[in-house]
């Protein structure tokens, strides 16, 4: 059976840990996906290839991330920017522990909560409140901790009586509000956001930004993948510009955004 | 920037993945939630609701009883009692096996957006089937005790052991099937065919004693045959099974479960990318 992961990892010794507390560390992270050009499809072919010792498949590696290094300190807010397909979401999934790195090491400290594909995990037939309970369990809460947070989540989402209606009757904005509320009320140490604020009305966005600032003041760490320059500027200290799986630039958010926007303009001018 | 409070929890590293077997225990409330969700979603929009879980197998049982007592006569006293003692265990097995290739894909959105042990969704699927099985078994027990034995046989004390063996075999196979299905979607078309064959080579609607002497050894290689014979011994005959049958079936169940779990564990880091 083909496994699309080649593992070459090393355990970091405790002496390697830096003196300043960091919340996320990615070192030399490579994420390969494979595109299969040929795969054994019949049992006959399988046996023929097994006997003649020819490989069962031919594949080429597609790199999503190539040598990604990032250290995020506790309480820092870092933005990942770059065009579609540059590896932002893959980086977030690796940090969240959803994907395993092909090479390199990803380390995180504390509770990591990711808002990726906002609300896609909701079951349409269940009510908002039922989905919130399910999501809480997914994030690893015990029932008592969840019960005490349910009220806060409902209040933050502010979708009124819809909380007891099946999610399939929600507008996309309401779904996003509920998903976002679960994530921010989950009290994460590290919060990963993927285009999370692209939906929702202005009032809700303002409330989200205020909430995210509160989290930062409380020493929480943020990693945001976003196309929204306003949000990135107001929320983040540092930015990482990803381009085809490589870090093109890393530094203060204003510098990186300025360079990225200049580059985007240039490529639009010469078609 | 002001000084931040240090994070108390130790580093979690991709070199020591969080999705180790022990992690499942931490997510036990998730398994409970997913079980409830499965049952709710399945019956929510139907008027009869949970009753459907009974009507479907009971209808099948009724047909089998009519066919095998009036048309093809199977020489068993109280055939209905014989059928009831094993059929629901078989039905549990069948449901778990045929849904196994689909479970990871059904939960694809969750696996892609949250890091949690992927076996949770499989265990929850088996768990919600187990709830349905418990209700079916309850009805079978009442009928068997009231109209077949007219007393509660001492052998019924073994029932929990049989249920555990049944769950081990079913979940072990399901873990293996789900792993293969993550790589090859074809398996979802293969399993129903295999399950149908398994129905005929397992003693579901006929007693294993009818199998010709010469084929017995081959027949016993199917762990399902041992399991169903145990059910017939305990529930229908009200007798304690032979120690050797109990031992070999237990061994088979442990082997199936360990093999399934080993295969699943080896490949589960990539499930989020595949489903």
What can you tell me about this protein's structure?
The complex is a heterodimer of chains A (271) and B (275). With 271 residues, chain A is α/β, with parallel strands linked by helices. Chain A is built from eight helices and nine strands. Chain A has helices spanning 43-51, 88-96, 128-138, 143-157, 172-185, 202-217, 229-235, 253-269; strands spanning 22-39, 57-73, 77-81, 103-109, 112-115, 190-194, 221-225, 238-243, 246-252. Chain B has helices at 23-26, 28-43, 52-71, 79-106, 108-113, 119-149, 159-183, 187-201, 216-220, 223-237, 243-267, 271-274; one strand spanning 11-13. Chains A and B meet through strand 1, helix 2, strand 4 and helix 3 of A and strand 1, helix 2, helix 5, helix 7 and helix 12 of B.
Topology, please?
The complex is a heterodimer of chains A (271) and B (275).
Chain A: E1 22-39, H1 43-51, E2 57-73, E3 77-81, H2 88-96, E4 103-109, E5 112-115, H3 128-138, H4 143-157, H5 172-185, E6 190-194, H6 202-217, E7 221-225, H7 229-235, E8 238-243, E9 246-252, H8 253-269
Parallel strand pairs in A: 3-7, 3-8, 5-6, 6-7
Antiparallel strand pairs in A: 1-2, 1-4, 8-9
Helix pairs in contact in A: 3-4, 4-5
Chain B: E1 11-13, H1 23-26, H2 28-43, H3 52-71, H4 79-106, H5 108-113, H6 119-149, H7 159-183, H8 187-201, H9 216-220, H10 223-237, H11 243-267, H12 271-274
Structural class of chain A: alpha/beta
Instruction: Compute the number of strand runs of chain A.
Output: 9
The fraction of residues in strands of chain A falls at: 25-35%
Number of helices of chain A: 8
Share of helix of chain B, binned: over 70%
């Amino acid at each position: 059976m083909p496994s699309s992961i080649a593992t070459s990892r090393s355990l970091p010794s405790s002496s390697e840990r830096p003196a300043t507390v960091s919340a996320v560390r990615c070192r030399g992270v490579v994420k390969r996906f494979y595109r299969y050009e040929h795969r054994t499809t019949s049992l006959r072919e399988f046996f023929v290839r097994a006997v003649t010792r020819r490989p069962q498949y031919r594949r080429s590696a597609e790199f999503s991330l190539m040598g990604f290094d990032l250290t995020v300190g506790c309480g820092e807010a870092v933005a990942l920017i770059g065009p579609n397909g540059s590896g932002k979401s893959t980086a977030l999934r690796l940090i969240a522990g959803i994907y395993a790195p092909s090479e390199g090491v990803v380390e995180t400290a504390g509770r990591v909560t990711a808002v990726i594909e906002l609300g896609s995990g909701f079951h349409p037939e269940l009510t908002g409140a039922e989905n919130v309970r399910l999501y809480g369990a997914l994030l690893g809460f015990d029932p008592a901790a969840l019960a005490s947070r349910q009220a806060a989540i409902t209040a933050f989402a502010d979708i009124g009586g819809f909380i007891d209606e099946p999610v399939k009757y929600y507008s996309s904005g309401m779904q996003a509000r509920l998903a976002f509320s679960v994530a921010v009320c989950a009290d994460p140490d590290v919060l990963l956001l993927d285009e999370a604020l692209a939906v929702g009305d202005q009032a809700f966005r303002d409330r989200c930004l205020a909430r995210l600032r509160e989290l930062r003041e409380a020493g929480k760490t943020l990693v945001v993948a976003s196309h929204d320059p306003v949000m990135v500027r107001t929320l983040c200290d540092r930015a990482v510009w990803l381009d085809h799986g490589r870090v093109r630039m890393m530094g203060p958010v204003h510098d990186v955004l300025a360079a990225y926007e200049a580059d985007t303009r240039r490529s639009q001018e010469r078609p | 920037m002001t000084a931040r409070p240090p994070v108390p929890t130790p580093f979690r590293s991709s070199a020591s993945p969080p999705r180790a077997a022990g992690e499942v225990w931490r997510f036990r409330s998730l398994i409970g939630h997913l079980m409830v969700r499965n049952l709710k979603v399945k019956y929510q929009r139907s008027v009869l609701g949970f009753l459907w879980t009974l009507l479907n197998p009971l209808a099948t049982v009724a047909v089998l009883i009519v066919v095998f007592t009036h048309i093809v006569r199977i020489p068993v006293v109280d055939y209905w009692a014989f059928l009831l003692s094993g059929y629901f265990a078989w039905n549990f097995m069948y449901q778990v096996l045929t849904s196994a290739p689909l479970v990871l894909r059904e939960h694809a959105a969750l696996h892609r957006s949250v890091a949690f042990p992927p076996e949770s969704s499989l265990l929850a699927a088996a768990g919600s089937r187990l709830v349905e099985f418990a209700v079916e078994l309850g009805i079978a027990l009442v009928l068997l005790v009231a109209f077949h034995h007219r007393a509660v046989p001492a052998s019924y004390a073994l029932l929990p052991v049989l249920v555990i063996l049944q769950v081990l075999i079913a979940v072990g196979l399901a873990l293996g099937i789900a792993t293969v299905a993550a790589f090859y979607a074809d398996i979802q078309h293969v399993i129903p065919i295999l399950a149908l064959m398994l129905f005929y080579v397992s003693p579901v609607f006929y007693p294993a004693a009818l199998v010709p002497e010469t084929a017995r050894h081959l027949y016993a290689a199917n762990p399902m045959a041992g399991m169903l014979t145990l059910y017939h011994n305990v529930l229908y005959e009200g007798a304690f099974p032979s120690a050797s049958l109990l031992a070999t079936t237990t061994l088979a169940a442990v082997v199936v479960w360990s093999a399934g779990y080993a295969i699943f564990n080896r490949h589960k880091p990539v499930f989020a990318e595949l489903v």
